[in-house]
Write a structure and sequence with these properties.
Chain lengths: 114, 116
């Protein structure tokens, strides 16, 4: 089991550019979550999917953010256009359907927008 | 408005002693609580959890206590080891009668340093 795989590990981009973060969940997991970690706000949930369908995107900060899950083994989080305040560590996590199954996190993507 | 609060940003203890990490919450609808540990440049990893119908759960050196009336939980690590040095996140899930709510609300974390 390779765990949740995120790419890239680090991303540095200029303000106004499009950024795409990628995630491969653990095989067999049917829930996928995108979290963002900042010093000010800690770990906050952006969006989560069940069986590739977005269930709750109320944490997505604004229209510049979008997430997709075209199949059970891949998800993307896109920011367009990016802004310096988007700088953070973005985590993807996955879990089984069982009610108390813990989340398994990837190692995150550190995004820096200059 | 933070629903899960970890008021101590950091904690330092000696190897072999007890580490106690605290967490307070405000949402009375939370029914399941978890602790995650995070090393630098890695994602959080699940450590231990407790349901709201219990007041204690133990797993080896780790014990979580829940005081529902005070809306408080704590993580005890005994004995503490240098390898336990990490950021510890408290997380809570809100009860959903439909069983479909998997959203976790996290605290901001406490950096534990265990000194040899």
């Amino acid at each position: 089991d390779a765990g949740v795989i995120q790419s890239p590990r680090h991303e540095v981009t200029e303000m106004g550019q499009e950024v795409t973060l990628r995630c491969k969940p653990i095989s067999g997991h049917d829930y996928l979550f995108w979290y963002r970690q900042t010093m000010m706000r800690g770990l906050e949930l952006l969006i989560y999917f069940n069986n590739n369908v977005p269930i709750d995107d109320s944490g997505m900060p604004e229209d510049r953010f979008s997430a997709k899950m075209p199949n059970a083994s891949f998800s993307t989080l896109k920011i367009q256009p990016s802004e310096p305040r988007d700088s953070a560590v973005y985590f993807c996590a996955s879990s089984f359907w069982q009610n108390n199954s813990p989340l398994h996190f990837g190692n995150g993507t550190r995004l820096t927008v200059t | 408005d933070q629903q899960v609060k970890q008021n101590s940003p950091s904690l330092s203890v000696q190897e072999g002693r007890i580490s106690i990490l605290n967490c307070d919450y405000t949402n009375s609808m939370f029914d399941y609580f978890l602790w995650y540990k995070k090393y630098p440049a890695e994602g959080p990893t699940f450590l231990i959890s407790i349901s709201s119908i219990k007041d204690k759960n133990e797993d080896g050196r780790f014990t979580v206590f829940l005081n529902k009336s005070a809306k408080h939980l704590s993580l005890h690590i005994v004995p503490s080891q240098p390898g336990d040095s990490a950021v510890y996140f408290c997380a809570a899930r809100e009860y959903d009668s439909g069983g479909s709510n998997y959203k976790l609300t996290f605290g901001k974390g406490t950096l534990l340093t265990v000194n040899p």
